[in-house]
Amino acid sequence: MSNISNFAKNFNGGVRPNQFNVSVFAPAVGAANLDFLGKATSIPASVIGNVDVPYRGRQLKVPGDRTFEDWTVTVFNDPTWENRSFFERWMDRIQDNTNPIRTGSALSVYGNGIVQQLDRTGQIIATYYVQDMYPTNLAAVDLDWGTNDSVEEFQVTFAINNWTSSRDGINSSGSGTNIDFNVSTRVGGVEINAGTGGTSIIA
Fold first, then answer.
1. Threshold 0.85, pTM exceeds
2. Which of 4, 62, 79, 164 is deepest in the core (most CB within 10 A)?
């Protein structure tokens, strides 16, 4: 029989949306400084399409293809303009501002992201690896003489090809895209060594 005591035991305090780490890496420009300036993001969505097959006036639902929705990160603007410039340089590699050409290699446009859900003690509950992604929208930064007592922030939206997850912080998987990331860093106790053939995660 359900009661408030059983609910409290199973709820166990719940998970708080403000306890997380987020990181973004790009082979062409390195890593964004989001340890303290990554204000908001999301656990990536999981979507499997649906195919309706008609049969004698009824519709049989059949699982379709898996798709990956866009992923968004909100970033505090820093006084050195480091993060804003990071994403601007990344997008320049995809297509230059003045000439409609790609200034980097076809594969160097892709990057990786990591978002980790933490518990109330700062321990990692789950890790999500957002793979083979690139920025599609670097949002405007609004300026206004009448805006006081606030700090600048902006959103970056990414198109992604794949994401995988691991509850223990260790995972090695990818979409199959052969990309040389040339990035090695450590995030939340997890070392990310990204090289040709995908990204390896080492505890």
1. no
2. 164
